[in-house]
Structures are given as structure tokens and as C-alpha cells.
Amino acid sequence: MNWQATVITLFPEMFPGPLGLSLAGRALEKGLWACRTEDLRQHGLGRHRAVDDTPFGGGAGMVIRPDVVDAAFAASQAPADVPRVYLTPRGRPLTQQNVRRYAAGAGVLLLCGRFEGVDERVLQAHDVEQVSIGDYILSGGETAALVLLDACVRLLPGVMGCEESGVEESFSEGLLEYPHYTRPAEWEGRAVPEILLSGNHAAIAAWRQKQAEKITRERRPDLWSAWLARKERNMAEAVGGAAQTDHFGV
Ligand code: SAH
């Protein structure tokens, strides 16, 4: 069975959108994944197929009704056991770890908000995970859904040409990736770091590791402290493990 993306949205025309091209597009053509949309408007109420209403408690904007979303969930033919995800700035940040979990399963069911968002009760009723793609506000969940799907699809078996490029990249070790260089070796007076031309693979690996650590420390203090903590834990475990071997060896 291929990986099934199902997207509940007021704008089904936005899918697969950019994911119909390049890597994800070729994978779509090959049937490695499939993208279905469920048009929220089809489940709207009355002559105007209204999907939203004013917020209880007052305030600006409109909120998408729970009954309308519920009907869309019921109509969507998503496999029963796939994670249900609502894209929202109020969600937990999307991480590569989550992306790996989604990609390893049968697919995802994504709910795209508009206006002020979706009535909270329908999210609870359907056990929906709330996921944010970053600390900024988009006009709708569709572009966030495309981001999540892009990140998942490239990890599906057979999608990326070089399997290794998925293993050795930013976040895979908890660090941001080292900088890249290609030909020409000198460009507009800027030379490539000498070591990359040395052919000394161990020295190159050490340089890249150093660069990854430096960039992570400068740009992402949050990732840096987590990485340091993990390293310390691993070292403690290694020492503890060695001590234990000695003990049993005696
Ligand atoms: N009033 C909301 C923002 C609504 S933006 C708030 O302050 O939290 C409208 C829709 O865009 C949301 O329902 C959500 O589906 C989507 N959206 C906006 N920013 C997003 C983000 N950073 N990540 C994921 N989805 C987002």
C-alpha cells in the first residue's frame, strides 16, 4: 500500500500544488504516495454552504464549526489508523522526529484551518494532534500542510535517489549541517576551505563536525544545549558501562 495523504481544506485546488513537481511529483506519478483532498465547503450548511460562525465570548473573526469539520472527517476516506493533524500556530512545533514518525506510518490526515481557526471540541473528539510549522501566522493551513507533506514524502522508501542524504543532514544528529561548496574552487576571489581539497577524509569529517557545532551554537542555542546534554549523558553511560564490565570481569 502506498502512503496516503488526505487533506481537509477549503481550497482543494492548492493540492498537490508544488508537490506535483520534482522529487515529490515523480514519486506521486510512480504511485509511491497519493494525495486526496476533502472539500470542507461540500459539508457547509444552508444555501451558502457556510462553514464558519462568530466566536462565543466575542472577538474578531470567524471560527470553523465543529459539525462541519466532523462531517468532513467522516467523508474523508483516510485509513482509520493514520495520525490526524490540525495545522495551527498553537500546535507543538513540527520536528524531523515527528516527520520520521509520520513517514513510517500509512499516511496522514491533515486539517487546514482558515479565519481564526477551528472549534476546539472537534479536535478533542477526533484525537487530533495540533502541529505548528513555526512562530508566525499564515493566512491558512494549506501552505503548512504542504510543508509537512514535503518533509514526509522525501523520506518515503524509493523517493530520494541517494538514501544517505536523508541520514546525514541537519537535525539527524541534533546539529545543523556543515556548509557546502562546489566548483569553481575559487569564485570571485573567494576560495573553498583548503581542507576540502586535501583528500584527507578523516580531517574533512572532523572539520565538518566542528563547523556543524559552531553553526548550531551560534544560530540555535536551543539545539546546542540539547546536544550538549545528550553528549554528556552518552559519555556518562559509556563510563558507567565500562565500569560495570570491569566489575563483572573481576
Ligand atoms: N487566530 C489564530 C491564527 C489563525 S491563522 C491564532 O492566533 O492562533 C489561520 C489558519 O492558518 C489557522 O487555522 C491554521 O490552520 C493556519 N496557520 C497559520 N499559521 C500557522 C502556523 N505557523 N503553522 C501551522 N498552521 C498555521
Write a brief structural summary:
By secondary structure, the protein is an alpha/beta fold. It is 39% helix and 17% strand. It binds S-adenosyl-L-homocysteine (SAH).
Keywords:
single chain, 250 residues, alpha/beta, Alpha/beta knot, 2 domains, five-stranded parallel sheet, two-stranded antiparallel ribbon, 8 helices, 9 strands, 39% helix, disordered C terminus, binds S-adenosyl-L-homocysteine, EC 2.1.1.228, cytoplasm, tRNA_m1G_MeTrfase_TrmD
Verbal overview:
The chain is an alpha/beta fold. It has two domains: 153 residues, Alpha/beta knot (3-Layer(aba) Sandwich); 58 residues, no CATH class. It is 39% helix and 17% strand. The protein has eight helices and nine strands. A five-stranded parallel sheet has the order 2-1-6-5-7, sandwiched between helices. The chain has a two-stranded antiparallel ribbon with strand order 3-4. A two-stranded antiparallel ribbon has the order 8-9. The chain is elongated. The chain binds S-adenosyl-L-homocysteine. The site of S-adenosyl-L-homocysteine (SAH) has 18 residues, from strand 5. Belongs to the RNA methyltransferase TrmD family. This is tRNA (guanine-N(1)-)-methyltransferase.
